Amino acid sequence: METKKTDRDILNKGLQTMGICLLLMFAGPTLFYISLSNKEKPLFIPLLIISILICSAAVYFGFKGIRTIMDSMFGKRKSS
Fold it and tell me: In this structure, is residue 31 part of a structural domain?
């Protein structure tokens, strides 16, 4: 019986994705706070939209990174 081993290339891609997620997790809420503290400025709405998009991207990259890391450890799922 063959034992499954971790695919290091896929693991590295997953860790890079999680690194991107980490950067976005700090940038999104920081920009959100900055945009809410300047409600009277003309760039309030664009900054708010951009910060919400960055927060959404952080959630996406988080799920994608965890899925990639799991695929590297346990193999790809069989599609039926």
Answer: yes
